[in-house]
Every structure is written in structure tokens, then in C-alpha cells.
Amino acid sequence: MKKVAVIGYGGQGAWHCTQVLKSDVTELVGIYDIREERRAAAKDNGIFVYESNEAIFADKNVDIVVVATPNDVHEDLVVNALKSGHNVICEKPVALSVEEFDRMVEAQNESGKKLSVHQNRRWDVDFLATKSVIESGEIGEVLRVESRIHGSRGIPSDWRCHKEPGGGMILDWGVHLIDQMLQLITEKIVTVNCNTTHYTNEEVDDGFRLELGFQSGKTAYVEVGTYNFIAMPRFYMQCKEGSLHLSDWQQKAKVAKLTRWIEKDVTPVQNAAGITKTMAPRDHLTLDSYEIERPISDVHNFYRNFCAAIDGECEQLIKNCEVRRVLGVMEAAFKSAQDKQTLKVDI
Predict the structure, then answer these.
(1) What are the angstrom distances between the C-alpha of 302 and each of 20, 52, 121, 255, 307?
(2) 221: buried, middle or exposed (CB in 10 Å: 19+, 13-18, 0-12)?
(3) How far is 64 from 188, CA to CA, in rounded Å?
(4) Superfamily for 2-118?
(5) CB 334 within 8 A of CB 208
(6) Using the 8-state DSSP alphabet, how is residue 266 labeled?
(7) Distances (CA, A) of 11 to 70, 125, 136
(8) Pairing of strands 235-239, 242-246
(9) Helices 98-111 and 320-339 sit at what angle, rounded to 10 degrees?
(10) Rounded distance between C-alpha atoms, residue 159 and residue 173, angstroms
(11) pLDDT per residue over 143-166, tens digit each?
(12) Domain spans of the chain?
């Protein structure tokens, strides 16, 4: 069992504590938070509270330090934890720039310890369902993937509303959806176009629309909205031999597989003020439609993998090169939105 200490006992830090306590590979030894009320909350929950971050760094019994603080203080905490001889799990986004992350990786390499970023959305069932269809090849090669998360409550009224600590939706939800997309389409990105929304917040983006162009011609679309009162599909995918539609993470994915391209006779349909063959719906003679079961997912596999990687038993699932690539896309997205133009990139 790996002994874990958590820095930051807010929403995500408390979530980590709960998961660490439930895990079959970790043991929670304590937390620290700069806020007195959060330290008191931890004590009320029977959790040991360290006197400071430095007290955690000095504790040689700690195997893993989890950093679950606002984004702007990640670098200092991660580097100090590594230098003091601890393995580190850092909440996403691990850094506010590629340059920051490179310094963290340098500290990791010098320490000989492991650094992992908590990209827990790789275990979301909607993502896993979409990924399984791609990997099966049942509807052919991917042409385009669209990924959306829509809410209607704006940005949470905490530090995520402000620029200095790293707020906004590109950094909050975008980091997840971009990471997922780069697992679905692994090719080099050659173009990035992004625009942001500020419907409820002028200081940081409360939503964004991001278009990615890949070297082969494949495209991807990532959208986050916090002012959408009717949500669009979570995933929509076009492939050479069919399509996928997944409304949200509670539903099964719907797949339409093309079995024949041409029907002998297409019956025109009434459309608005005229008739059309082009937009006539397909029938069972040329299309096979079905649902796929929701995958089984266990978020504790993140902790199991990292603990096994520490012991040299396997490779980390969340690789530094993948994390760096996501940060590169986010940097390009911010620049594209600022300059109001499509960027040519090599990511």
C-alpha cells in the first residue's frame, strides 16, 4: 500500500481523499490546506492534518503527494515534492504553460521519482464507448469527431472565475476533452482555430469552440458551454462506413453502419416546401442501426496503474509527452482566440 498525502482539501482534494481511502493500493496519511476551515473539515472527517506543506515534504513515510490546489501554484508544489523525494500526482491542468511543465519534468528526471497528471476523464464511459467503436473498426476509418460538454450554470463561483489562478473553461474542462480527443485521433495537428465566449464572465472564458485539423485531413471539434439550456450530443462521429451518436454519459452510444451505398429506388420525401431525394432518410436495406452497451469503468485503475509504475511493474497510462501535447494545444487555442485567426501548428 502506498502512503498518500494530499495538498489542498477543496472539492477535488476531498474527492482524492475519498478515493484513496477506498483504493486497494493506497493509504491516506493526511492532508494540508492553507484555509483553516478546510483543515477543520478534514479533522472532523477523521483525517490527520499536517502543519504545513513543508511538513508533508519532510515526511519520508509519504510515497505519493497529491497536489489539488488552484492551477497557478502547481509548479512550486510539484517541484518541491519531487525534490524532497516523493512521487507526485497533480490535478489538471498540471501547468499554465508548456514551459512550466518542462520545468516539472526536469525536476522529475533529476529526482528519479514519478510524476502523473490526474486525467481521470479517460475513464469516462462515454469516451470509452466512442474509443471502443474506433478501435473495433466496425464503421471504418474516422473522418471527424465532435465532443461537447454543455451546462447552464456559468462558471462555479470560486477561483475558476478568475484569470490569475488559472480559471476559465479551456483550462477546466477543455484540458479533459482535448486529452480525450488526442487519444481518439493520434495524428499530428496542423491547424488550430478557437473562439471563446464570455456570456457570464468577462475575466475568463465561460466557454469555447475549438476546431483541430490533422495531417491526414481528419478533423475534430471540441466545445464547452456553460450557458446552454438545451445540450447538444456529447459525442458525434463520422466514419467512412457509418456514424456514432452519444447524447450524454448516461446513455448508450447509437451506431449506424452503412451496409450498401445505393438503393435501387429512393423515394422522395416532402421537405419544407418541396421534395428531396438527397436528404431522404435511409432504411434497413442500406443501414444497420444498433446501440452498444456502456463500458465498465473503474476510476481506481488510475491509482493502481501509478502505484504499479512506481514499482517498475508497468508503464504509466498518463504519459508526460501526452500531457505536454495537450498543453501545447491549449496554448495554441488561447492564441487563436486572441488573434481571431486559424493558426498553422505542428503539435
Answers:
(1) 11, 27, 10, 29, 9
(2) middle
(3) 33
(4) NAD(P)-binding Rossmann-like Domain (3.40.50.720)
(5) no
(6) P
(7) 11, 22, 37
(8) antiparallel
(9) 160
(10) 15
(11) 999 999 999 999 987 899 999 999
(12) 2-118, 122-296+328-344
Are residues 240 and 143 in contact, defined by beta-carbon separation less than 8 angstroms? yes
Look at residue 314 and give its three-state secondary structure.
Answer: coil
- Cell of residue 265, nine digits: 429506388
pTM confidence score:
0.96
Rg, the chain, Cα only: 23
Strand partners, 343: 192
**C-alpha grid cell, residue 142:** 474516422
Is pLDDT at 48 greater than 80 in this prediction? yes
**Residue 279: per-residue pLDDT:** 86
**Measured on CA atoms in the order 96, 316, 1, 104, is the torsion positive or negative?**
negative
Whether the Cβ atoms of residue 330 and residue 170 lie closer than 8 Å to each other? yes
Q: For residue 275, report the phi and psi dihedrals to the nearest 5 degrees.
A: -115, 155
227, 220 contact by CB (below 8 A): no
DSSP 122: G
Confidence category of residue 263, pLDDT binned at 50, 70, 90 = confident
Class of domain 122-296+328-344: alpha beta
